[in-house]
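ok trying again, last paste got cut off:
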Amino acid sequence: MAYRNDREVARYQSWESISRPEAAKFIAQQGRHRPGVPGKWFQFAAELKAGGELAGDCALLVIRTTPRIGEIGYTFARAYQHSGLATEAARAVIDFAFDVLELNRVIATTDCRNAPSVALMERLGMKRAGHFLHNAWFKGEWCDEYQYAAIRDEWSRDRLS
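nice, full thing came through this time. structure:
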C-alpha cells in the first residue's frame, strides 16, 4: 500500500493511490487467482531474500484474444528502484511466461518519458517493437508510448549463450 500511494511511483501507472480496504481486497483477489488465465492480470510479489520485505510487484497478463502473447508490467517502491530487483523480477516473470505458460511473445508498453522503464526493458534484452504517437489519454494528457517485445525462441537462445 505504501509504494502504491507514492505519487512518484504512480506517475506512469494507471492508478493514483490505493486505500487500505482496496489493498486488502486486491491481495485477497490475487490469492484466489492463478497466473496465466487469459484476460486476468496476475501480480507476482517481489520480496527481499533477506527478511522478506515487499519491494514491489511484477504483473503478467495473458492476452485474451491471442493467448500465446503476454504483457508484463512492474512497480517497485522507490527505496528499491535502481537496485536490479525489477530486472531480476521481470526476467523471472518472462522466464515463467515462456517456460511454464509456453507463450510465444511477451510485450511491455511504457510512456516514452519513463526513461527508467525503457532502460529496464532494454536491459532485459527486449526489442523496441513500436513507437505510438498520442497512443493513450493518460492522466489528463495524450502520451506517446513505446512497446517492447521478447520472443520465446530469441529469449531461450540468449539465455543459453
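cool. Helices lie at 7-10, 20-32, 85-99, 115-123, 152-160. The beta strands are 42-47, 54-62, 69-76, 105-111, 127-138, 141-151.
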